[in-house]
Design goal:
Length: 300
């Protein structure tokens, strides 16, 4: 008998390729998840505020004076998206540091000053035996600088607009001054220096670190500045594509300690954020600085 043909196995079921519309939906979902993760990262990092501590020695600091512990806060930018409660927590942290004196570097609210009162109601709680002193930033100058100056005074904070004062530390004295904003004011370091001369320690508050490029070498010992927000959004903390907007000097004044050949500049990362309270590898910061004479032991 003829052999029956072997039964061939049925062909495997073919799997239909995803329809183009389905593939588009998958891609859109992935993009949305990525964007959500990016936004979440920025919000979380923007909500953190680190305290950076510095100990700086200067030959002009009076040898007989005790070290001075100063706190420096700047660039709050309290607007509709920012949290006054978060600023309150920063104030509590600064007070816990027990500084001798507190300095504020400007940009308290958005340019329209809608939440200026909310900002200063929190900053009014700052406590230091030698007082709280402040300068204005570029955003404070845009609409009503006189209003900001008045609000600072009402909050118990003394503004320094091209003026300064002598601080007696017992074993010597130092000069502290503040200047108007570099972009919208007329900063005058000489007016702030007053009678200070060579050999006197002179600390200057200036919102914009670019102003320090105009100072004569050796005229100022230390400048406390802000304005650049540590770049606000950086590539893994190494480089910011946005730093050229607030500064003409590239990455130079992004944040931290800079010796520019004219003076020493400490640039704070700032407590808030511009446009939105978000940061990327550039966390907000406040600075606590211990000043002392060369060869003098610092305070822990």
């Amino acid at each position: 008998m003829p052999e029956e043909p072997a039964h061939s196995a049925p062909p495997p079921e073919s799997v239909a390729a995803p329809a183009p519309r389905t593939r588009r939906r998958v891609r859109v979902s992935r993009v949305l998840l990525l964007l959500l993760a990016v936004v979440a990262w920025g919000v979380v990092e923007g909500g953190v505020c680190r305290v950076r501590r510095h100990e700086l020695a200067f030959p002009d600091y009076p040898a007989g004076a005790a070290p001075l512990r100063a706190a420096f806060l700047t660039d709050f930018h309290l607007d509709r998206l920012a949290s006054a409660r978060r600023l309150g927590r920063i104030v509590d942290r600064v007070n816990a540091e027990a500084p001798d004196i507190i300095f504020l570097g400007g940009d308290y609210a958005d340019a329209k000053l809608e939440r200026l009162d909310d900002c200063l109601s929190e900053l009014a709680r700052l406590k230091a035996p030698l007082g709280v002193w402040a300068v204005l930033g570029n955003h404070d100058h845009v609409h009503a600088p006189a209003r900001v100056l008045s609000a600072l005074r009402e909050a118990g904070i003394t503004p320094l607009e091209n003026e300064g004062f002598w601080l007696d530390l017992g074993g010597g004295r130092i000069r502290i001054g503040g200047v108007a904003d570099f972009w919208h004011g007329r900063p005058d370091w000489e007016a702030a220096a007053g009678t200070a001369g060579p050999g006197d320690f002179f600390l200057l508050l200036a919102h914009n670190p670019d102003y320090t490029e105009t100072l004569p070498p050796g005229a100022v010992d230390l400048v406390l500045a802000g304005h650049t927000h540590d770049g606000q959004a950086t590539v893994f903390g190494l480089w910011s594509p946005f730093i050229g907007i607030p500064s003409r000097h590239g990455q130079k004044y992004r944040a931290g300690l800079v010796d520019n050949g004219r003076t020493t500049v400490l640039v704070s990362g700032g407590a808030g954020g511009l446009i939105a309270p978000m940061r990327y590898f550039a966390p907000p910061s406040v600075e606590v600085v211990t000043l002392r004479a060369d060869g003098q032991s610092g305070r822990p």
